[in-house]
Design brief:
Number of strands: 11
Shape: globular
Radius of gyration: 20 Å
Distance between the termini: 55 Å
Helix content: 10-25%
Order of helices and strands: EEEHEEEEEEEEH
Strand content: 25-35%
Low-confidence stretches: none
Number of domains: 2
């Protein structure tokens, strides 16, 4: 199947899709011109899937996860967990590091792979860049004061930049 022009079923209706099919953003009130190509698709599969509704939206109405605003909000709610003891909310899609651990692009990070210890999500170490789990069974997300790997990487980069500007 080519992606220039094709037909899909969405919500029981057959529609024309593809990057040569001109359209308008489907967000209520938006009039930006787009096409019905994969770049504007909410989700991963034309017609809709578990990742999105299958609608077509301009860049202002798609999140970084290729979801429209309503689908993105649903995903955020479904993939977050709040520790009842501390009130801290964790995004279970993030990668984490224990306190004091440096980020390495080919190192280990901790990731939620869908398992729980009682009601508490477990994090398992995974090897970058493939994100392949190691032999560790994981720990509850509340075991350490985990920090997002992205925050650690950003802080490391800022420290390198600060050192370069002094040098």
């Amino acid at each position: 199947m080519g992606y220039a022009s094709y037909e899909v079923y969405r919500n029981g209706e057959r529609i024309e899709a593809g990057y040569t099919v001109r359209a308008v953003c489907e967000m209520d009130g938006c009039t930006k011109e787009i096409d019905r190509g994969l770049a504007y698709l909410c989700g991963q599969t034309p017609g809709g899937d578990e990742f999105g509704c299958g609608g077509y939206f301009c860049a202002d109405h798609l999140t970084y996860a290729q979801q429209c605003t309503p689908c993105g909000k649903k995903a955020d709610e479904a993939n977050s967990w709040t520790d009842p003891a501390t009130g801290i909310t964790y995004d279970l899609r993030d990668e984490y590091l224990p306190p004091g651990e440096a980020y390495k692009a080919d190192g280990w990070v901790w990731k939620h792979l869908g398992t729980f210890e009682g009601e508490v999500p477990k994090l398992v170490p995974v090897k970058l860049p493939e994100r392949r789990p190691g032999g560790h069974l994981g720990v509850a997300i509340t075991t350490y004061e985990f920090e997002t790997a992205g925050t650690v990487a950003w802080r490391q980069e800022r420290a390198v930049q600060a050192g370069e500007s002094r040098g």
